[in-house]
Amino acid sequence: MEKKLDHIGVAVRNIEDSINFYTNVLGGKLIDRYRSEAEGVESEIAIIDIDGDRTELLMPTNNTTSPIARFIKQKGKGVHHVAYHVGSLEQALEDLKERGIRTLEGSLRTNKHGRRLIYLNPADTEGTIIEYCDYPEQP
């Protein structure tokens, strides 16, 4: 199955400072900003486009339950995950299952942009948090 880099997720402590850096220093454009209090997300998210490549800035909104807060506490700010666009999330999940690769329980969801996503278990991915995603509403 073909995979293509979709975006990089970056855990940040101060989203305003990070937006400033990504737009004013790197020349990116802020294309969306929103807050998600969904369980397992609990973050403020800013999407930056730099010449067609996307970076998601992720700032925890709940320092007790947000997975981004846990990540920052354990590893510090920085790259949180790498997301790959797959043609069909269902087919990709079947392929993972056949290969013995687990996903993080409860991480399957659809975000506000219609992107369906799931995180692969870092224990099976050499320690990197990898997201698989597709956009079923888009042609």
TrEMBL record:
Domain (VOC) ranges: 4-135
Domain of life: Bacteria
InterPro entries: Glyas_Bleomycin-R_OHBP_Dase, MeMalonyl-CoA_epimerase, MMCE/EMCE_epimerase, VOC_core
GO terms for MF: metal ion binding; methylmalonyl-CoA epimerase activity
Stated family: Belongs to the methylmalonyl-CoA epimerase family.
Native organism: Halobacillus litoralis
Protein name: Glyoxalase
Coiled-coil segments on the chain, per record: none
Keywords recorded for this protein, A-Z: Metal-binding
